């Protein structure tokens, strides 16, 4: 670890305190997060639920170091993310975090394998890109360009890309949002496998409530606040989910 | 191993190869001009230098009336002098056809034995005149070529009034006579002026100069001080009728060549950067739009842990590749075109050799300069990457707010159909972007306007000089100044409507340290045929209390009306007088100084003398008149204005002015490149939208209209902006082309603007057609898939 701890509270993966995020000013002012206090243990598969606009993406972006809070604090393993410089935040993303987005966000001019290499090139102890694609069942498609892949396949490339650097946390913002349910299930299956086999914590944002069944913990957002936190004693396999 | 990002770079470049190449070519034209002009100037300078050195051209020249050869010994001991040579120089007339006017020539002596120590000549064919043979002459090659004379032919020459026939032993060129014109004439004409080299004996007896010389040539020792040597030389030679030694810088031919090269140098320094700025601006616009289109990908790179610097470097490389390809192509083309132009100038300046040479350093500078200016715009854009948080970059671009433009466009609802409203809304939504694109096209248009202005400036210069200032049809020059009777007998000739005498006398004008060797022309107070003009092209009265100077001459001497000039007359009794500057005149050709003719003659102490006359003639009888004039005693030459006009045109079109054609062509290419690029950018940004339009049932024509309507509007907006910008640029570029020999007015006419506008509109139509063809071929499925 390259960062000096600013709070000795290393029991949790993430801890937040009075976290607020305000966009805009004056009439255009939006309070996307209105004070979030939350503790998340390591190794879990967490699902964030809530209606559109309730602040889930905003919250995830701040945890992932893509965005900054307006007020309050976030600790990652006892390190204060809110106090980090841009460079330190970049390093944090590079070492600890992987992202999967709703619209896959692959580089159109790179093949599946090259999209994965984009990340492994700057990682410290990455997987072989071929192995990562293997994990999501896409070995046969590795030399295809995004335009030659279906939506589900593109999303699985995105997952392979996020996993390949062996992140401590995998953030997935509506990973199945653009997919039909059968394809969505294969994507969720890949995320669950990753959680179980690599031990990475996985955070999934979704508005499909059924997904909650596969989570260890379900956080329910509403209007910039947390409405409830549910701990699930017996998560089901991704195959069982219907929506 | 090649990094994946570089793979991405390669593929992205390939994807937009058409556009990348178009930008690279714009940059290439800029660096082409840079390299070509730099190389040309350097090559001409080095060639001139080498030519002068190889043929030992003197550093200081001094005319005397008659100095004994012993005086040379006094010169050679002057501090700073390396070598001296005395020679005889005199006027000569060469007979041409029977009854025709003889051609004026300069007779110059060669030592009786061996080669001249200074001012050697290059014998191109045949040989030096043999020592001891009294009938051989070496002839200037330019004249021989014009009259189709070869070694072995015979010519009849009058030397000091005695006619003799000589055998041409050989043809020669000399660095002393690269540019040669008959005294009193501005433009060189090979057929009307010659140089004859004789062995010393012949000229000594013809001009009564046995054991004497009338011109001293002096070369400086290393470190010799020119001003000191000139002063000492004048001191030594003053008792022999000398006293006006002058340096190589003032020598007639060298002055012309130097002027030409320095005018090339000025345009080499001034013009290419202007062209490069246009290219840089274009690249800035392209990079802005490219990076906007890549926002998500940039956000993604940052989300994965790439630093802002790494992301910026990736995109900067994109730009560097394009700029480098352009700059390298431009440098290669510049060397090729430069050596072609050099070959051309070699022939024009009659250099015996010319090697196109360009310093590797200046190629490097051109490369770096091109790449830096081209990247400067991109760097400005990339700076913005640093402020972009990855989350902000990742957000799909906020659906544009059309509410404002909808309100404005709404008021036109009844007037416009749906596609027109779409065009209008988009322009109103991003007015800054539309304006930037307009400015890009405007800068290309400005460049074209400026170059067209310069082109028509050259025409205007000729028109003003030969139609407004000079209203004569012919000019008669006497072999020596004649009394008023000569003018009367010309007036009586059939076909002469009007005749106006003039006096021309060779002088040195001095003001402080500045000096100018030229002529003062004496004219009547209210000349009718040869006028001095104000900048508003109204005639100026010729004064007897002061000189009327050309503006360019006043600039050179650093004087304004009221200042007093020292005038050293180089003829007759060589008086030195102080004369104030009375007024300035706009003279576009030459650098004249005018004085009222009787005041000039009083100064010279030679009442009523004329050097020649301007004539207005009856066009129908002009052929006959020409024959009559040529047969008149005392007439050395007759030139028709049309011929003088043609020879000035020749200098303009073949000398330093010739590069204006290349520059105008390049300006046109850049203009086209800018317009084409703007169209391509619009297309690549709209591909997705166009596909959507087609999918929901718009026809190709309608979709194409949405695309091209915007280009059309932007182009129309660019026209007035470019026209205005061109006016400013024209002045700067015209100043670069102006020299002591002619001044190019940097004014832009409405016609230039109209022509440039037509060029831009044609470029827009062609670009529109090319892009439209791509739009028609658009593969709907893949266009919709590639970018959300
Ligand atoms: N960049 C932004 N500028 C202004 N408002 C924003 C921005 N990003 C999100 N918002 C607002 O913040 C609120 C929360 O958004 P988000 O976190 O994306 O919700 P969710 O992911 O739960 O749908 C919404 O009201 C949204 O409009
Ligand atoms: Mg969201």
Give your account of this protein's structure.
The complex is a heterodimer of chains A (243) and B (788). In chain A, 27% of the residues lie in helices and 25% in strands. Chain A contains 6 helices and 10 strands; from the N terminus they run βββαββαβαααβαβββ. Chain A has helices spanning 56-63, 86-96, 112-120, 129-135, 151-163, 181-198, and strands spanning 14-23, 30-40, 45-49, 71-76, 79-80, 97-100, 169-173, 201-205, 217-222, 225-231. Chain A has a 6-stranded mixed beta sheet, with helices on both faces. A 4-stranded antiparallel beta sheet of chain A has the order 2-1-4-5, covered by helices on one side. In chain A, strand 4 (71-76) and strand 5 form a beta hairpin. Chain A starts with 13 loop residues before the first strand and ends in a 12-residue tail after the last strand. By secondary structure, chain B is an alpha+beta fold. The two termini of chain B are 32 Å apart. Chain B has a 6-stranded mixed β-barrel with strand order 3-4-9-6-8-7. Chain B is 53% helix and 19% strand. In chain B, strand 18 and strand 19 form a beta hairpin. Chain A binds chain B through residues 61, 64, 66-68, 86-87, 90-91, 93-95, 97, 99, 101, 103, 105, 107-110, 114, 117-119, 121-122, 147, and chain B through 3-5, 7-8, 11-12, 15, 296-297, 300-308, 389-392, 394, 396, 782, 785-788. Bound molecules: adenosine-5'-diphosphate and magnesium ion. The site of adenosine-5'-diphosphate has 12 residues of chain A, from strand 2 and helix 1. Adenosine-5'-diphosphate (ADP) binds next to strand 2 and helix 1 of chain A.
The end-to-end span of chain A amounts to 41 Å
The low-confidence runs of chain A, each spanning 5 or more residues with pLDDT under 50, are: 1-8
Q: Terminal Cα separation of chain B, in Å? A: 32 Å
* β-strand number of chain A: 10
| Secondary structural class of chain B | alpha+beta
Number of DSSP strand runs of chain B? 22
């Amino acid at each position: 670890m390259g960062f000096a701890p600013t709070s000795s509270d290393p029991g949790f993966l993430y801890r937040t305190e009075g976290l607020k995020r305000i966009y805009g000013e004056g009439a255009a002012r939006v309070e996307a997060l209105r004070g979030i206090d939350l503790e998340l243990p390591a190794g879990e598969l967490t699902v964030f639920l809530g209606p559109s606009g309730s602040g889930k993406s905003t919250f995830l972006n701040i945890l992932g170091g893509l965005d900054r809070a307006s007020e309050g604090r976030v600790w990652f393993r006892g390190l204060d993310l809110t106090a980090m410089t841009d460079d330190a935040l970049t390093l944090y993303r590079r070492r600890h975090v992987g992202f999967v987005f709703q619209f896959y966000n692959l580089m159109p001019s790179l093949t599946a394998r090259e999209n994965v290499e984009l990340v492994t090139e700057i990682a410290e102890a990455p997987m072989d890109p071929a192995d990562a694609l293997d994990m999501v069942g896409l070995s046969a498609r590795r030399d295809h360009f995004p335009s030659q892949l279906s939506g589900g396949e593109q999303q699985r490339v995105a997952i392979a890309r996020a996993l390949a650097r062996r992140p401590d946390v995998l953030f997935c913002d509506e990973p199945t949002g653009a997919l039909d349910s059968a394809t969505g299930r294969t994507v969720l299956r890949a995320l669950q496998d990753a959680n179980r086999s690599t031990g990475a914590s996985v955070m999934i944002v979704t508005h499909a409530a059924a997904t909650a069944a596969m989570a260890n913990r379900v956080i329910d957002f509403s209007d910039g606040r947390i409405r409830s936190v549910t701990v699930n004693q017996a998560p089901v396999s991704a195959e069982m989910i219907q929506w | 191993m090649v990094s994946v990002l570089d793979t991405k770079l390669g593929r992205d470049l390939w994807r937009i190869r058409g556009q990348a190449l178009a930008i690279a070519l714009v940059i290439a034209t800029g660096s082409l001009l840079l390299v070509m002009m730099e190389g040309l100037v350097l090559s001409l300078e080095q060639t001139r230098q080498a030519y002068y050195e190889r043929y030992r051209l003197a550093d200081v020249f001094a005319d005397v009336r008659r100095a004994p050869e012993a005086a040379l010994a006094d010169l050679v001991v002057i501090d700073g002098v390396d070598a001296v040579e005395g020679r005889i120089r005199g006027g000569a007339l060469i007979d041409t056809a029977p009854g025709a006017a003889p051609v004026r020539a300069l007779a110059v002596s060669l030592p009786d034995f061996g080669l001249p120590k200074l001012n050697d000549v290059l014998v191109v064919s045949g040989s030096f005149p043999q020592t001891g043979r009294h009938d051989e002459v070496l002839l200037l090659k330019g004249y021989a070529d014009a009259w189709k004379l070869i070694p072995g032919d015979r010519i009849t020459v009058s030397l000091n009034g005695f006619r003799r026939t000589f055998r041409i032993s050989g043809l020669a060129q000399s660095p002393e006579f690269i540019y040669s014109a008959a005294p009193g004439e501005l433009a060189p004409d090979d057929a009307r002026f010659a140089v004859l080299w004789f062995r010393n004996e012949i000229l000594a007896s013809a001009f009564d100069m046995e054991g004497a010389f009338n011109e001293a040539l002096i070369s400086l020792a290393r470190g010799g001080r020119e001003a000191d040597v000139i002063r000492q030389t004048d001191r030594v030679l003053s008792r022999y009728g000398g006293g006006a030694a002058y340096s190589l810088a003032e020598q007639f031919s060298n002055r012309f060549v130097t002027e030409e090269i320095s005018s090339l140098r000025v345009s080499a320094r001034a013009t290419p950067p202007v062209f490069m700025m246009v290219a840089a601006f274009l690249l800035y616009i392209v990079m802005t739009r490219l990076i906007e289109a890549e926002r998500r990908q940039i956000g993604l790179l940052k989300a994965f842990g790439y630093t802002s610097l790494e992301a910026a470097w990736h995109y900067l490389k994109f730009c560097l590749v394009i700029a480098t390809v352009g700059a390298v192509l431009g440098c290669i083309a510049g060397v090729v075109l430069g050596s072609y132009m050099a070959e051309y100038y070699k022939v024009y300046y009659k250099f015996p050799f010319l090697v196109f040479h360009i310093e590797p350093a200046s190629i490097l500078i051109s490369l770096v300069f091109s790449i830096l200016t081209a990247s400067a715009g991109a760097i400005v854009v990339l700076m913005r990457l640093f402020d972009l948080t990855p989350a902000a970059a990742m957000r799909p671009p906020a659906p544009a707010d059309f509410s404002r433009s909808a309100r404005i466009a709404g008021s036109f609802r009844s007037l416009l159909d749906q596609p027109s409203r779409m065009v209008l809304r988009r322009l109103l939504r991003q007015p800054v972007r539309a304006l930037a694109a307009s400015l890009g096209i405007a800068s290309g248009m400005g460049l074209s306007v400026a170059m067209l202005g310069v082109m028509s400036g050259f025409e205007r210069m000729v028109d003003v000089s030969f139609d407004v200032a000079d209203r004569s049809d012919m000019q008669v020059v006497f072999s020596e100044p004649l009394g008023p009777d000569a003018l009367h007998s010309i007036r009586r000739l059939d076909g002469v409507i009007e005749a106006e005498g003039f006096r021309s006398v060779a002088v040195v004008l001095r003001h402080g340290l500045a000096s100018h060797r030229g002529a003062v022309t004496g004219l009547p107070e209210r000349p009718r045929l040869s006028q001095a003009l104000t900048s508003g092209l109204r005639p100026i009265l010729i004064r007897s209390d002061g000189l009327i100077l050309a503006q360019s001459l006043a600039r050179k001497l650093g004087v304004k009306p009221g200042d007093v000039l020292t005038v050293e007359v180089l003829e007759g009794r060589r008086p030195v007088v102080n004369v104030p500057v009375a007024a300035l005149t706009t003279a576009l050709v030459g650098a004249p100084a005018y004085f009222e003719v009787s005041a000039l003659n009083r100064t010279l102490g030679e009442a009523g003398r004329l050097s020649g006359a301007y004539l207005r003639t009856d066009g129908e009888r002009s052929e006959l008149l020409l024959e009559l004039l040529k047969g008149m005693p005392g007439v050395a030459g007759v030139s028709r204005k049309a011929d003088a006009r043609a020879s000035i045109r020749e200098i303009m079109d073949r000398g330093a002015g010739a590069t204006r054609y290349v520059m105008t062509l390049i300006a046109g290419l850049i203009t086209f490149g800018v317009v084409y690029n703007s169209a391509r950018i619009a297309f690549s940004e709209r591909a997705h939208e166009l596909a959507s339009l087609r999918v929901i049932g718009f026809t190709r024509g309608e979709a194409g209209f949405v695309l091209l309507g915007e280009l059309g509007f932007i182009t129309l907006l660019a026209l007035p902006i470019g026209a205005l910008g061109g006016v400013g640029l024209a002045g700067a570029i015209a100043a670069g082309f102006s020299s002591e020999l002619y001044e190019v007015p940097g004014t832009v006419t409405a016609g230039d603007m109209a022509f440039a506008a037509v060029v831009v509109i044609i470029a827009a139509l062609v670009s529109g057609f090319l892009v439209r063809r791509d739009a028609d071929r658009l593969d709907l499925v893949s266009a919709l898939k590639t970018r959300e």
